[in-house]
Design brief:
At1g61320/At1g61330-like; 434 residues; 3-stranded parallel β-sheet; alpha/beta; LRR_dom_sf; 17-stranded mixed β-sheet; LRR_At1g61320_AtMIF1; At1g61320/AtMIF1 LRR domain-containing protein
């Protein structure tokens, strides 16, 4: 990891004898970046030389406004005192952006020792200036008397340690002006739940976190990103949710769809990626609700051998999205999916018309009966359809395994739908085969 410490302060408040200036004056601010030079110093001297240089500049800054303080270091226990000093300096200098981007050293077994963020150094006046907080590889354990972060706009947390559900709920509940929140590899082994309304939150990302449920009250949320195991997600009152990108690792498609319908009913654009997928043999979801605003859907499915005969059942999702205009279904399956002759026929699907659907794109097409019947069902029940694209490329895997691409099979697969689709598509609709 390349170690550096970057400081942005008032113009003229930095002694230019220390450090290396990067860039120019911007908005009357001067930015300095301090980088340890691996060619000049070796071994443990790297971090110490950097610390000595920075400490000298921090003394020059004392009592003056510093806009940003960013620390990016490979963490060692001997740095705790200096990081505490950096926090103390940032708070006293009314810093707006504080970033501790720490990484574990290679000799830390299973990343057992984290830097403990010094909440005790923060008081009501000092935290009122903080707008952005980024912490990585940090033990995040606020004391019971912590005053909160009332003016924080952005919170970026990565690889937290020692944080409980209640800790995080207390912190987030105090961030009444929070607009942007990211949690990556923050393992609670419990629910991620915030009861207090976060009325300014418009971006939420939760990636690879060991949690059991997500529940937020965020009326202004516009973007939500989740990647992890299948869990319930409840975004209360998120009536402005424009984009949701959901990746579940292990789920039954119909269960996942019903859960999202209950927790994100007002989403407008949805990407749903299900790895280790299972499909149920039923045409409808166990839900009385529909996606009332959903216009664009991308579904990415890893189809196993056991589910070749259930492909057509993905229409159960379309039946709860009556206003859908654009649909993308990206199939990824094993070699036995080619021309699989298993599963029901479209005549078994209960009647349903997709009156708003204008554009459908299917990739990973293998000429399997379920895929063919799905396309025929759409063509026969979407009177406003304008464009149909059928592509044999598996978007998620063909780039990784180019030797498995079979051009001759691709052509034969497309021939199975070319004529039947042209016969059934509405007048003027365009068909693209690739």
């Amino acid at each position: 990891m390349h170690n550096f410490i970057e400081i942005t302060g008032e113009r003229g408040c930095v002694d230019q004898r220390f450090g290396e200036r990067v860039g120019v004056f911007v908005d009357n601010l001067l930015r300095y970046k301090f980088v340890d030079d691996a060619h000049t110093h070796s071994g443990k001297q790297h971090a110490q030389v950097l610390i000595d240089r920075v400490n000298a500049v921090l003394r020059k800054h004392r009592g003056k406004f510093v806009h940003d303080l960013e620390v990016k270091l490979t963490f060692e226990s001997k740095l705790v005192h200096h990081l505490d000093n950096g926090t103390r300096f940032a708070i006293s200098s009314r810093t707006k952006t504080l970033a501790f981007d720490l990484a574990p050293s290679s000799n830390l077994p299973r990343h057992g020792y984290h830097y403990t963020f010094p909440f005790d150094l923060l008081d009501k006046e000092s935290v009122s200036y903080l707008r952005c907080l980024q912490l990585s590889f940090v033990r995040f354990k606020p004391p019971s008397h912590f005053v909160g972060l009332p003016n924080l706009r952005k919170l970026d947390l990565y690889l937290l340690k020692g944080t409980t559900r209640q800790d995080l709920e207390n912190i987030l509940g105090s961030c009444c002006k929070l607009e942007w929140l990211s949690l990556v590899r923050c393992h609670l082994n419990d629910e991620l739940r915030v009861v207090q309304p976060l009325s300014h939150l418009h971006y939420l990302k939760v990636i690879y976190c060991e949690i059991t449920k997500i529940e937020f009250h965020a009326a202004s949320l516009s973007t939500f990103v989740y990647d992890g195991t299948y869990i319930p997600i409840a975004l209360r009152h998120a009536s402005k949710l424009e984009n949701a990108k959901i990746s579940f690792r292990g789920a039954v498609l119909q269960h996942a769809a019903a859960s999202l319908l209950a927790g994100l009913p007002d989403v407008q654009n949805l990407t749903l990626n299900v790895l280790i997928l299972q499909l149920e043999t039923r045409w409808t979801l166990n839900s009385p609700r529909v996606f009332s605003l959903l216009r664009h859907v991308q579904i990415m499915l890893m189809i196993s051998y056991e589910d070749h005969d259930k492909i057509l059942y993905i229409v159960s999702f379309l039946r709860v999205a009556p206003l859908i205009e654009r649909l993308e279904v990206h199939f990824n399956g094993i070699a036995t999916m080619w021309f699989s002759n298993e599963g029901p026929f479209r005549q078994e699907v209960p009647p349903c018309e997709y009156t708003h659907l204008k554009n459908i794109r299917v990739t990973g097409f293998r000429g399997a009966r379920g895929q063919v019947e799905f396309l025929m069902h759409i063509a026969e029940n979407a009177p406003a359809l304008q464009v149909v694209t059928v592509d044999t490329t598996q978007r998620l895997t063909d780039a990784w395994f180019p030797d498995e691409v079979k051009p001759e099979l691709n052509s034969d697969a497309l021939d199975t739908v070319r004529g039947p689709l042209l016969e059934r598509l509405p007048s003027g609709a365009k068909l693209f085969l690739a």
